[in-house]
Amino acid sequence: MIKIEIHTLAGQLDIEIKKNEDFYILLVILSKSQYFQEDGRVWSGKIEETEKLFEIVNLIKECYRKPSVPTRITINDGRLIKINLKDDESQIALHLIDIDENTNESELIQKIKELTIEITGNDAILQDYLDIFMD
């Protein structure tokens, strides 16, 4: 299971990937937000091809083993990304505040975003929220 929680001043976006009996399910939850004037939304989808999912798992493990060294002063801009991975081999928790470009962490966030967009069918509204929360 992978759980990604993105907390910002504007609201919260959660992405969960869980294994069902024979396949994986992606669930995206946008919490109620006065900033976006939303009562909350949910998107979901079945992950048919697991290649990208395993790339994400490997990136999470790599980010945990060798975290990138910030190249500038880290400032909390009001966004915190928590990533939890639980599988047969390990249990990993990452807390990302300020992500430099061209790092394992930035690649991880991009891969999660791409997989989410692909599985939910390129939903334009979700894509806008992912841009706001993940860029």
Physical arrangement of strands within the biggest beta sheet: 4-3-2-1-5-6
Q: So what's the oligomer here?
A: single chain
Q: Given the structure, what is the number of helices?
A: 3
Mean pLDDT over all positions:
85
Class from secondary-structure proportions: alpha+beta
Poorly predicted residue ranges: none
Largest sheet: 6 strands, antiparallel
Q: How many strand elements?
A: 6
What distance separates the N and C termini? 24 Å
Strand content: 25-35%
| Percent in helix | 25-40%
Radius of gyration: 15 Å
Please write the string of helix (H) and strand (E) elements.
Answer: EEEEHEEHH
* Overall spatial form: globular
Give a short synopsis of this structure.
The chain has 135 residues and is α+β, with helices and mostly antiparallel strands. The protein has three helices and six strands, in the order ββββαββαα.
Folded structure, characterized:
With 135 residues, the protein is α+β, with helices and mostly antiparallel strands. It has 3 helices and 6 strands. Strands 4-3-2-1-5-6 form a 6-stranded antiparallel sheet, with helices on one face. A hairpin with a 4-residue loop joins strand 1 and strand 2. Helix 1 runs antiparallel to helix 2 and helix 2 packs antiparallel against helix 3. The longest helix is centred in the C-terminal third of the chain and has 16 residues. The radius of gyration is 15 Å and the shape is globular. The protein starts with a strand and ends with a helix. 19% of the residues are buried. The model has no long low-confidence stretch (mean pLDDT 85).
